[in-house]
Design goal:
Elements lengths: L4 H23 L3 H9 L3 H7 L3 H26 L5 H39 L3 H9 L6 H22 L8 E5 L8 H9 L7 H5 L19 E5 L1
Antiparallel strand pairs: 1-2
Helix pairs in contact: 1-4, 1-6, 2-5, 3-5, 4-5, 4-7, 5-7
């Protein structure tokens, strides 16, 4: 599951704009006053609530929830009942992923506070400090890749759990792009899988060499499973 970079960039800009406003206000104060205030300042809470970053992070989770709703629709279309325990399990997985996003925001807030405090101690002016803060993204490339991988793993766990009682009846096909970025292991799976698809157990037994049901073709894979009844 790969989230459009525009979604990440929009959240990065929201976080940066808010942090710049906070740092500008702090630098208008006397150094000792600013340091005293910043020690009492919870950057994470302020960023989440006043900066409304919680709403921005919810946009990322909604991408996960869209995939989950698509799974639930496929299950209902086939006529398979979803139990309450399974639905609760889905809710738990979504919450785990949201907690991970909040953890990313906490880490960002700690880094930002560190830079601002040192900047105040060093007597840096706003322009210099603002440039430093602008170079600290909430979601850099590595973190984006990690989130994409976490969401991919979550969605595929949900997919497997949705059909777990019908593993011999439901088959899956490996689908997605086949271009210059496609890994050899993914290209091999796309080209050589049977038209009727494979069962979960067949996939996990290595029918598509190098392809795992949960992590697909590896870290940050762009492919997905399509249900075949």
């Amino acid at each position: 599951m790969v989230i459009d970079d525009k979604v990440y960039e929009a959240i990065n800009e929201r976080a940066k704009e808010f942090i710049k406003k906070v740092s500008e206000k702090l630098l208008m104060l006397d150094k000792e006053e600013a340091l005293k205030l910043i020690n009492e300042y919870d950057f994470y809470k302020v960023l989440i609530k006043d900066g409304k970053l919680d709403k921005e992070l919810s946009k990322l989770i909604k991408e996960h929830e869209k995939e989950l709703q698509n799974i639930i629709k496929q299950v209902k279309d086939i006529g398979i009942p979803l139990s309450q325990p399974t639905l609760k399990l889905f809710d738990r997985i979504v919450k785990l992923d949201y907690d991970y996003l909040l953890g990313s925001a906490k880490n960002y807030a700690d880094v930002v506070k560190n830079v601002i405090v040192k900047g105040i101690i060093a007597g840096k002016d706003y322009e210099v400090l603002a440039k430093e803060l602008d170079g600290i993204p909430l979601f850099d490339y590595q973190r984006r890749v990690m989130i994409n991988q976490i969401f991919t793993n979550s969605v595929n766990i949900e997919l497997e759990q949705a059909f777990k009682d019908y593993k011999d009846e439901v088959r899956f096909k490996f689908v997605g792009p086949d271009d210059e970025k496609t890994r050899d292991v993914c290209k091999n799976a796309l080209d050589n899988q049977p038209d009727e698809g494979l069962t979960f157990d067949e996939i996990q037994s290595g029918a598509l060499e190098g392809i795992d049901f949960y992590n697909l073709g590896g870290f940050n894979c762009r492919h997905r499973w399509e249900v075949v009844v």
